[in-house]
Design brief:
This protein has six helices and seven strands, in the order αββββαβαβααβα. By secondary structure, it is of the alpha/beta class. The protein has one domain: Ribonuclease H-like superfamily/Ribonuclease H (Nucleotidyltransferase, domain 5, 2-Layer Sandwich), CATH 3.30.420.10. It is globular, with a radius of gyration of 20 Å.
């Protein structure tokens, strides 16, 4: 019999709730942008950066071509980027983790970002967070929601999680920042932590250099609450009826 390639299943491009989710998201964003006491940010993680001498596929005008490894050399240290974009001002913050992108890592990054920005945002009562519908921070992830509730209580903030529909993460504003960063450092070898952080510092988004932070904490996977404990927090979460089955 002839050899046949394995056929990849094509991802869905739209779910029945897509339009309802977009309508809900656009309304939330519009109201936030008009409120003086509301701040809208966009968050996302980026693919981990391998610290190695492999080529990143970029081109440059240097006199001598950069020499890179021609194949994967095995075990590599990695950095996990997490970005927070102030949608209105264009200020980008990137926190690089040395561990896993867990719920605790994500909310710790938000805590760190807010502690550095709350003084100039002392009038803010509501934080609207644009985020994609990926597996790292869905609203049914118990540890993530518990940490977000704790974050809201600690800082006396109303937190609004404004999700993009599944398969539409490219519309999340911070996605454009990742493209700029990848083009910016594609011509170098990101073989050390210091090199990677320095290159990230020299990119610009809307003419502004990002704030770069290294998170040295090691996080454990699989941290979650029991269903009974999480249900006790259910009344703290107000879900949109048209979207509650998708986020």
């Amino acid at each position: 019999m002839p050899l046949r390639r394995v056929q990849k299943a094509k991802p869905l491009k739209k779910i029945p709730e897509t339009y309802a989710i977009f309508d809900n998201l656009i309304n939330i964003n519009k109201i936030s942008d008009l409120r003086q006491d509301s701040l809208r940010i966009s968050i996302d993680t980026k693919t981990k950066v391998d610290l190695c001498d492999s080529s990143r596929g970029g081109t440059s005008r240097c006199r001598k071509a950069l020499q890179a490894n021609d194949h994967d050399m095995g075990f590599k240290d990695k950095l996990a980027p997490f970005g927070i974009l102030n949608v209105m001002t264009g200020l980008l913050t990137i926190l690089f983790g040395v561990s896993f992108e867990t719920s605790d890592f994500i909310v710790d990054c938000l805590e760190h970002w807010w502690s550095n920005n709350k003084e100039q945002n002392s009038h803010i009562k509501q934080l609207v967070i644009n985020l994609d519908n990926g597996p790292r921070y869905p609203s049914h992830r118990t540890q993530f929601m518990k940490r977000m509730i704790d974050f809201a209580d600690k800082n006396n903030l109303e937190i609004v999680l404004a999700y993009y529909p599944p398969y539409y993460s490219k519309y999340n504003p911070i996605e454009h920042c990742w493209g700029i960063l990848e083009n910016h450092w594609s011509t170098t070898l990101l073989n050390t932590m210091e090199t990677t952080l320095q290159w990230a510092k020299t990119m610009t988004w809307k003419g502004i250099s990002p704030v770069i932070t290294l998170v040295k904490i090691t996080y454990q996977k699989g941290v979650r609450m029991t269903k009974k404990t999480f249900n006790a927090l259910a009344d703290r979460i107000d879900r949109d009826a048209s979207c509650q089955n998708t986020i």
